[in-house]
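Entry: Probable inactive receptor kinase At4g23740
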Amino acid sequence: DPVKDKQALLDFLEHINHSRSLIWSKETSVCNSWIGVTCNSDHSRVIALRLPGMGLRGPIPANTLSRLSAVQILNLRSNAISGSFPSDFAELKNLTILYLPFNKFSGPLPDFSVWNNLIIVNLSNNGFNGGIPPSVSKLSRLTALDLSNNSLSGDIPDVNIPSLQQLDLANNNLTGIVPKSLERFPSWAFFGNNLSSENAIPPALPGQPPNAQQPKKAKKLSEPALLGIVIGGCVLLFVLVALLMICCHSKRQKEREFPAKYQKKEVSLKKMASENYDKNNRLVFFEGCNLAFDLEDLLRASAEVLGKGTFGVTYKAALEEATTVAVKRLKEVTSTKREFEQQMEVVGRIKHENVSALRAYYYSKDEKLVVHDYYDLGSVSALLHGKRGDGRTPLDWETRLKIAIGAARGIAHIHSQNSGKFVHGNIKASNIFLNSEGYGCVSDIGLAAVMSPMPPPVMRAAGYRAPEVTDTRKATQASDVYSFGVLLLELLTGKSPIHTTGGEEIVHLVRWVHSVVREEWTAEVFDLELLRYPNVEEEMVEMLQIGMNCVVRMPEQRPKMSDLVRTVEEIRRANTGNQPSSETKSETSVSTPIPRGAEIGPSSSVPQ
Ligand SMILES: Nc1ncnc2c1ncn2[C@@H]1O[C@H](COP(=O)(O)OP(=O)(O)OP(=O)(O)O)[C@@H](O)[C@H]1O
C-alpha cells in the first residue's frame, strides 16, 4: 500500500465533514478496497480519487489531498465543498482531470499555469468569481473546459488551444466579445453573459478628431430633398424593424439552442424514467469497488442501448472522465426488496477472476438497476455470431478454449457460494465476457431467481434451457450444467442454440449436434472457422464429448461443475506435447470422420 498517500487520505477524511460513509479504514488496503481510490499497477501510489456525491462539506483541509502528488484524476463532483480553490492543489503536478463541478467553491479561479498535463477541467456550477485567468491558454493538452454557471466577470481571454474540443462559459457575467480563437464553438457556450455582439458598432476610435462625428451646420432643405429624407426615413424604419425581428428570432433561437445542448446529453436513464428514481434510495456499492459515482452521475451519463434481454434493457453508460459501466434496468422483479437485497448481497460478495463483479445495485419501488463493468470486446455471443463477412475476425480455437475454461471455473465458483447451493440460472453466450487474460468471465448472476418466471415461449433463452426447467426461477445447478453444455456446443459449432436454416426451418442446436454425431460420426459439426487451425481436432472432439455429457436429459446424470473444470482444463493438458505434425493434421481435419471408437455422448440419453 502507498503508506504516505493512505495517511494523506485518512487526514483528509478526518478533517472534512462528510455525510456518507466512505468505509476507509487504516486496517484495509487502500488500493484494493477503499471506495473512490485507484492506485497504479504496482500499488505504490494513488493515481485517481473519485468521490462524487459523497456529501463532503466545507473547505478542503489544507495539506491533505495536496500530498497525493501522483494523482492524475481528481473528481469531487456534486458535494458541498466550499471556500476558495485550495492553493496547495498547485502541488498536484500530474493532474490530467480536474473535476469539481456542483460544489460551493467561491473566490477567484486558480492560476492554471502550474498544471501542464490537464486534459479536462470542469469547475462549473460553483460560485467562482473574478476573471478567467489568461494562464488557461497555457494548457496545451486541454480538450474540455467547463466554467459555466459561476459568477466570472471580465473579458474572455484569447484561449488559442488547438486540442480544445469542448467549451462552456455559459451563465457568468463575462463581458466584451468572443475572441476569434473561440468563435468555432457554438453560441450556447457563451449564452447568459453580457457579451456584446460581434457586429456592434465600435465606439469612436480614440485617435479620431473630435469634430469628425459632429453634424454639419444645417442648411435649409429643398422640397425634393425633404421628400427624399421622408422616403429614406421610411426605408430606414423598415430596415430597422426587419433587423429587430431578425434579432428577436436569433435570440429565441439561442434560447432554444441552450437547453438543447443539455437535452442532447439527456439521452440518458434519467430522461427515460426520471420519475422512477427515488432520491431516498441510493446506489449500493460493494466493498472493494473503487468506482465511485452516485445515482445522479448515472442518470446524467449519456447512455447507449446495448441490447434488450430477458430481464430488461442493458445500457452502456459513459460516466464522467472515462468510466464506463453497463447498467441493466430490470423489468419485472417479483421478489420483495429484502429478498432482492439478500440476493444482491450474495452476488456482490462473489469475487473471482472468472465472474464479472457486480459493482452496485439500486432498488426502489419502480426501478431496479444492476451495475457491472463494461466489457469493450462485447459478449461471447457477439464475438461468435456478430460481424460476418469481410470485417469478421475469426475466433480461434485457443480463444474458444480459454472461454470454456474460464466459464467453467466461473460457474463452479458460483455454485460453491451460499454453502454450495447457489445457482446462476441464465448461462448463455451473451452473459459470458472475456476477462483481461482472455478467459471466459460469467455475468448476470442470480437474476433469474428474483425475476418473474419466463414462460416457455420466450425463445431467447430457450436454447440454453434444460428440458426440466419450466419456471426460470427454479433453475438448478444441474440446469446450469446443461446451459454450459450448450455453450460448449455453440463454441464448437459456431451456431446459435436455436437458429434457422436457409429454408426457415428452426434448428435446435443440441438436437442437431446429437443427430449428426449419432448418424454420421463425422466432424461436420465443427465450425468451419476452426478447421483451419492445425492440431486441434482431438481437443475439439474432447470438448464435444464434454458438451454432450452436459446436455443429457436426466439432470442427475449430468456432471458436476467442479468436475467439469477439471475435464475442460484437461482438454489442453491431455494433448499438449502429443500433437501430430501440423501438416498432416490440418489436411485431414476438414472431412475426416471421427473414429467410431470415439464415444461421443452417452448413447442411452437422448438430449433435448
Ligand atoms: N457488462 C457488459 N459489457 C458489455 N456488454 C454487455 C454487458 N452486459 C450486457 N452486455 C450486452 O448487452 C446486451 C444486452 O444484454 P442483456 O444481459 O440485457 O441481455 P441478454 O444477455 O441478451 O439476455 P439476458 O437478459 O437473458 O441476460 C447483450 O448483447 C450483452 O452481451
